[in-house]
Amino acid sequence: MKVMITGISGFVGSHLAEHLLSMGHEVHGIVRWRSKMENISHIQDKLHLVNADIRDGYSLQNVFKYVNPDVCFHLAAQSFVKESWNAPIETLSTNILGTANVLEAVRLTCPACVTVVAGSSEEYGLVHPSETPIKEDNQLRPMSPYGVSKCATDYLGRLSYMSYGMKTIVTRSFNTTGPRRGDVFATSSFAKQIAEIEVLNKKPVMYVGNLDAQRDWTDVRDVVRAYWLVAMKCKAGEVYNICQGQVRSVREMLDMLLDMSIEDIEVKQDADRMRPSDVPLLLGSADKVKIITNWKPRIPFEQTMTDLLQYWRKKVKQ
After folding, report:
1. How much is the pTM?
2. Across the beta sheet with 71-74, what order do the strands follow?
3. For a tag site, which of 3, 184, 261, 298 has the least CB within 10 Å?
4. What are the pLDDT digits (tens) for 256-265?
C-alpha cells in the first residue's frame, strides 16, 4: 500500500516507517526544512519525503493530491507535555489547526484514505483510582495544554467521520518509549544522564522531576505494530487505547535503569523539571483493540529499558 506519515522524522514516526518498509509498503513522509533527520537517516533512501508544514493547509492539499495515499498516520505534533506549559499557544495551534489541515487535505483530495489520528492518554488527565484500568469511554479531564490540544484533535478526527463519512480512526497511546526517544522525556532523560556519567565521566548525579507519577509504558515497536493493525482492522469513527495494561511509578522505572549501571549515582530533584500540574495515574485497558486485532505487546519493559540505555551509551560516544 501507499502510506503517508506526518511527523515521519520523529520518534514514533521513524519506527512506524521502519515497520511499514519491513512489510513492503511504499512509505511517504512529510518533513520540514528544520526537521531532525537523524532518526530516519538509516532508511532515508527508501522513503519518499516531501517538504510541507501541517500548519499550511494549501501545501498539505498539494502533497496529498500528489501522493494519493491509501493510509495516513497523522503523528506530527508538539508532544512534550512540559513544553505545552511554556508555549501553550504554539502547542494548541500546531496540534489543533495542524490536525484540521490534515483532515481537510484528505477530505478534498483522497477521501477514501484510511486516516489514523494519534491521540494521547493525556486526554484522560485526572483519573480516579476507581476508574482504572481506563477504557475509551472514560471521562476526559486533561491537565495540561497538551492534553487539551489532544482532546481537540480527537474530536476533530471523529467529527470528520460523523460529518463526511471519512475513514478516520483515533488512537490513544499511553506512554510510549524505546530507542530514539527524545531526551526531554523521563525515560530517555534518565537513560541519557546515566550514559553520560558512564561514558563521559560526568559527575554522578541524576536530576529528576516528579517520581511519584504512575504510568503505563509500552515499547514503541509494539505501538507501531498496533497502529498498522488499527488501520487495517478497526472501525472508522471509533477510539482505541494502545497500552501495556501495567503501571509503574517513575521512581520504579528510574530504579530499574540505575540497577543496569555499575556507577553509584546520586538522585536529586530539579524544580525546573516539575510541571504546574501533573497527572498522578495513567493505567489503561487495551481490551478493545486486542479483541478486534489480536494485538498484544511482545517486548517486556525491562528489555525496552535495556535497549534505551544501550541506545544512549552508543549515542553519547558519537
Report:
1. 0.95
2. 48-51, 26-31, 2-6, 71-74, 114-120, 167-173, 239-242
3. 298
4. 999 999 999 9
